[in-house]
Amino acid sequence: MRPLERVPSRQGFFARAVPHSPAPHSLRPSVEPANPGNLLDQIGNTPLVRLNRSADLPGVEIWLKLEFANPGGSVKDRPARNIILEGERSGRLAPGKTILDATSGNTGIGYAMIGAARGYKVKLCLPANASPERKLILRALGAELVLTDPGEGSDGAFRKVRELYAADPDAHFYADQYNNAANWEAHFQTTAPEIIRQTQGQVTHFVALLGTTGTFIGTSRRLKRDVPGVECWSAQPATPLHGVEGTKHLPASIVPGIYDPDLADGNLWIDTEDCYAMARRVAREEGLLLGISAAGNVVAARRLGERLVAEGRPGVIVTIACDGAAKYLNEGFWNDPD
After folding, report:
1. Same domain assignment for residues 99 and 194
2. Which of 65, 74, 76, 234 is catalytic?
3. Could you tell me if 316 and 200 lie in one domain?
4. CB-CB contact of 81 with 172 (8 Å)
């Protein structure tokens, strides 16, 4: 990959893009905010940075898309925006209705942020063991929280939200991020084209942990359409019980309706302890404070890079910094194990 010119932005640095005109596609167009320059216009166009000391693999580059630069602090601002705007366009979301969904936290923060800006109440079901910072942020934005059994993870929140919606469907806009095509379409329309521009079309591999699966599905579909030969790898926690918030071990979980099992070129199984260790490493070697799933994505990208090195293949791997460490700073894993 040619060296990318790094230019300053209000959020740090990003790789200078070359002009790119995406080919037309059959999906409905993204729904744009009515007023240019508003909060929703600040979602997306996040920086892309190359990892150095923590990705020292000969012939392989690992690039990290800093989604914590979004106004709500995570990659989930993208689908939250698209789901809400598509709900308004379709008429399913109208003044007086409450936005309702299950979340592990980040999509909920996106809903709450955008709901506050557009005048909607927001009610969210999430596991009671979601990080204290996430719950504080959600309440600060005015969201009503329904905490569910932590032992049931995101599946328990999903079951509870369906129960609440069935009891009073007329009062709610059920966003249903696990089954709503507007989730993955947000990444098809924005995340993937940004990656293509920022890497000058030289991305060879994309890897992402699975949660709702929207980031992986939407980004991979667009990359596979527009970048010849690109490989897209999913990653999952190695066990049903894990500490990687926002992700799913699909064999033991309710599989999201938007998931496409035939899309990935391969899957990587990730251990929680490796994610914790990588969060510490990237903080101290790269100066980046990452959330747990973001660190897990780096673990997966590095593992994929090691595979390429063993096979004698070069690579330009892109992965996602889903969120930053601000929502996890009270977690004990930041201290080096004895």
Report:
1. no
2. 76
3. yes
4. no
